[in-house]
Amino acid sequence: MIALLLVPALLLLVIVFVGPLFRYAWLSFHADSVITGLIAVPNGGANWLRLVQDQRYWQDLFQTLRFAGVSVGLELVLALLIALLLDQRWRGRDVVRTLALIPWALPTTVMALGWRWIFNTPYGPIDHLTKSIGIGSLNILGDPNLTWMATVWADVWKTTPFAALILLAGLQTIPGDLYEAVRLEGGNAMICLQRITLPLLRPYILLALLFRLAQAFGVFDLIQVLTGGGPASSTESIALYAYWNALRFLDFGYSATIIMASFILISFICVLAWIALQFIIPTHSKSQGVVEP
Q1: CATH no. of 52-284
Q2: Rounded to an integer, what distance in angstroms lies between the CA atom of residue 261 and that of residue 214?
Q3: Closest Cα partner for 67 from 178, 125, 8, 152?
Q4: Residue 289: band (very low, low, confident or very high) from pLDDT cuts 50, 70, 90
């Protein structure tokens, strides 16, 4: 009976995920562009060979990995600190919990437009501030070294509450008796964090990590609105490059190849992240109250 109840969800998953995935895999071995009259023509592995030799793809891949690694790393650290703070009992906690979700609730396009104005030169508040203290104009959205950091900052500001919400849910499942037992044995807050909190939070940290890795690796709307991939393609992501090929150059075969290569890579990265997390954070035995290696 339970298996039958899962059938509609499985059918929806097949329709919205598995079906398009097989379509992209099939299309990656076909030429489908204005040259072929927008008709899929088998071309063997020509798209994949082109991908290997495409310097712009590798540049965008590096930029996407850098963006995902830095932003997700910062988000998890900040999310853990915020979740630990919001898990404590203090006056006004419920109000702060609600307000903390506002960045995540905002549409990415609206948020990116707001940050584009903040980083704007010469009309943005940051530019006015730096000029008023004598630093001068930073030209944040015109300097490649500053622009990618601006995209990371905007992403961290928006999505940290999402990761914090997941970790906060995990914190509220941890029995208070475990902390009391550690304190009775003379343990301090750091020991509680190392032996109780982090081990029991591992499934939630993994969930937040996988969600955010997939989202950050496929970032599109933030980059498109905030920088448009510039300056000089210095913030262009893999998703944006696939978008250009599909809807600007009408090269659907090569765009599908980019998407499939990205899917394979992010799947591999998520598996590696899951394995690494097993070694970084030990498991906790509730029955024995000790940390297992």
Answers
A1: 1.10.3720.10
A2: 14
A3: 152
A4: very low
